[in-house]
Specification:
2 domains, alpha+beta, about 325 residues, 13 strands, globular, 6-stranded mixed β-sheet, 60s Ribosomal Protein L30, Chain: A, Phosphoribosyl-aminoimidazole Synthetase, Chain A, domain 2
């Protein structure tokens, strides 16, 4: 994708475009004035669960996330959908209902959308958000000495793979769904109280690749493997039984030469390569604020953790201890 973007025309110079496609950020940001900027993002994907209502909830939760990752709040959303010709109206309605409920929970307004015919059902949202211009958060603003906070546990992709292979428990699947349908609104509202240097959400590229984008070849990071939160203890068992995704293999191939491991368990490595659907926020936060922030985040339902820190640039991007 990066090579493709380099071939595109840059268009007219616009000094009000704070974040465009030239960066690897979560959304585009356009400055309206010195007080307010607009955030634009779009995301949709095929269903990873059989229940159409849950699919709608998961897809909408994922689409809304990028607005919070830029430091803003969503205000307006449009459905983007593709359904097979002849698909039951009831089924389509359940997808749209699931999405609409999450839009409402986010404090956002659903304003219609667009649907096409396709063999594979797909759903998501185009979301408009607003942010104070001086408080736009990019994903590459990390500072040496910052602590790294992750606001959702990892391993959702592994649990979904186990579910598709029918080797999981009902509790495993329920925990994965809980994670995927929990809005990042609640953790973002806490983090916005503190001195956050950089913010992103952890999705399909896994923890390691998203962290590498944050470091942007300017800094390195030290992670503590024992601190990385995992959805539940069964994740380890599923990894050891080889229930991980093709996406994890691609993520590993993309980043493995930039990581130094020190006695890191193999299953933890796979958890960090695991593609997350509607994952949590990865935050680079002032070290003096990290303890207070994690105390507030601990009151939420999903587990957050301080997983490492930003260090001076070294030979490797990421060091896992």
């Amino acid at each position: 994708m990066e090579q493709i973007l380099k071939t595109l025309p840059k268009g007219l110079k616009d000094d009000n475009l704070i974040v465009g496609y030239e960066s690897k950020d979560d959304a585009a940001v356009y400055k309206i004035n010195d007080e307010v900027s607009v955030i634009e993002t779009l995301d949709f994907f095929p269903s990873m669960v059989e229940d159409p209502y849950l699919f709608g909830q998961i897809a909408a939760t994922n689409s809304l996330s990028d607005v919070w990752a830029m430091g803003g709040r969503p205000v307006m959303a449009l459905n983007i959908a593709a359904f097979p010709d002849g698909m039951k109206t009831e089924t389509i309605g359940k997808v749209l209902k699931g999405g609409a409920e999450k839009v409402i929970e986010a404090g956002c307004t659903l304003c219609g959308g667009h649907t096409i015919v396709d063999e594979t059902p797909k759903y998501g949202l185009s979301v408009t958000g607003i942010v104070e211009t001086k408080k736009v958060l990019k994903n590459n603003g990390v500072k040496v000495g910052d602590k790294l906070i992750l606001t959702k546990p990892l391993g959702v992709g592994i649990l979904l793979t186990a579910h598709q292979c029918e080797v999981d428990t009902k509790e495993d699947f329920a925990e994965a769904v809980k994670s995927m349908t929990t809005l990042n609104k609640y953790s973002a509202e806490i983090l916005f109280k503190y001195r956050v240097s950089a913010l992103t959400d952890v999705t399909g590229f896994g923890l390691f690749n998203h962290l590498n984008e944050m470091l942007d070849d300017k800094c390195s990071a030290k992670l503590f493997s024992e601190s990385i939160p995992v959805v539940n203890s069964n994740v380890k068992k599923y990894v050891e039984d080889d229930y991980y995704t093709g996406g994890a293999i691609r993520n590993e191939d993309a980043i493995k030469n930039k990581i130094s491991f020190h006695e890191t368990p193999e299953w933890i490595k796979q958890v960090c390569y695991d593609p997350q659907t509607s994952g949590g926020l990865l935050c680079s936060i002032n070290a003096e604020d990290a303890k207070s922030a994690i105390e507030e985040l601990s009151k939420l339902e999903l587990k957050s953790a301080i997983i490492g820190e930003v260090i001076d640039k070294k030979d490797m991007a990421i060091y896992v201890e």
